[in-house]
Amino acid sequence: MRIAETVTFGSSGLDRAAALRGDADGLAALLAQGSVLPVWRGKPLMDGDALGWLPHDSAVFSGAGPAVFLGLDEGTPRFARDVSDWSPEAGAEGVAAGFFDPSLQHHPALDARFAFAELRGVMVQLSARDAELAATAKAVLHWHRSHGFCATCGAKSDMAMGGWQRNCAGCGTHHFPRTDPVVIMLITRGNRVLVGRNAAWPEGMYSLLAGFVEPGETLEAAVRREVAEEAGVTVGAVRYLSSQPWPFPASLMFGCAGEAETDAITVDPAELEDALWVTREEMVTVMAGLHPRIKAARRGAIAHFLIANWLADRLD
Ligand SMILES: [Zn+2]
To answer: Is the dihedral of CA 296, 299, 301, 303 positive or negative?
Structure first.
């Protein structure tokens, strides 16, 4: 797909400068002259409509985790630090669970224009560069928070290589940030596309089917298996379209197109609440927000991107 990388969180060409990660003294010097993105419980700091980059010695970083080196942004060293141990005033913590947390948290050390915000709520307003930096920061900081102990021997591990590795002091194993592959598929049959909904989603929202790729499986096989399991539809030819880093918390979405060979839908109630075929004409109404029953996938998500480009005949 020629416009694959125009998806939200698509590559902005960030120079990750991986060769600098092993030079701890060099990174310390870069940190002193660079800028740092605080991430609080998965939420990046926003400065109005852009990311909230702060100097390394901001009071916000009191008690924060070590800095992760994100790369060089047109020469500016960019870092991220986890500030999840900070507690906002009582009642301002936001929604711990659920599909989307719309609450904002303001830090007392910063002007009122700064706030921690759910990335899903701001992702489409960020520049491509800020979106890549935010996705990278959120994903790698989440990995550090959830992988503090060695999977081989159980001892505590420590951040190394500018945040791109953890080393176990007990057995010496090196651990690397993980990314979980997910297939998300635009399954068509003639002029109809297959969509489904999960019971936990906002009322009326339908999206493309998706699922984790299993060990030992190709993307194509995962597409066919997931569609058969979730909707009982047989899929023939499958092709890759576009990928999207999706740091909620650590996925890489592989957008694929698949041709259905059967019509009948049998929903697996453990996976989906409903699935249905939607014609191209009806999907135009859905995407315009004018459909009486069906709501579109969230803008910024690859499902929205694939459906919009299917409607516009831009999947080539
Ligand atoms: Zn170990």
So the answer is: positive
CA 175 to centroid of ligand 1, rounded, Å: 9
> Locate tokens 């070590």: which residue?
66
Task: Report whether pLDDT(34) > 90.
Answer: yes
CA–CA dist 281, 164 (Å, integer): 46
φ/ψ of 43, rounded to 5, equals -100, 125
Cα separation, 285 vs 279, whole angstroms:
10
Q: How far apart are CA 194 and CA 174, in angstroms?
A: 42
Task: Kindly state the helix (H) or strand (E) to which residue 146 belongs, with its residue range.
Answer: helix 128-146
- Cα 30–Cα 251–Cα 249 angle in degrees, nearest 5: 70
Which one, of 197, 279, 283, 196, lies nearest residue 233 by Cα? 196
* Helical segments of 16-127, H only: 24-33, 119-122
What token pair was written down for 52?
């909230």
pLDDT at 91 over 80: no
Running DSSP on this structure, what letter comes out for residue 54? B
CA 166 to ligand 1 center in whole angstroms: 10
CA–CA separation, 146 vs 133, rounded Å?
A: 20
Say if CB 17 and CB 69 are below 8 A apart.
yes
96 Cα to the center of ligand 1, angstroms: 31
First to last CA, the chain: 5
Instruction: State pLDDT tens for residues 182-208.
Output: 999 999 999 999 999 999 899 999 999
The first and second tokens of residue 96, run together, are: 């711990």
* 247 CA to centre of ligand 1 in angstroms: 26
**pLDDT of amino acid 96:** 58
Residue 172 Cα to ligand 1 middle (Å): 6
Ligand 1 centroid distance, CA of 151 (Å) = 7
Both tokens of residue 303? 């499902």
Q: Is the pTM of this model over 0.85?
A: yes
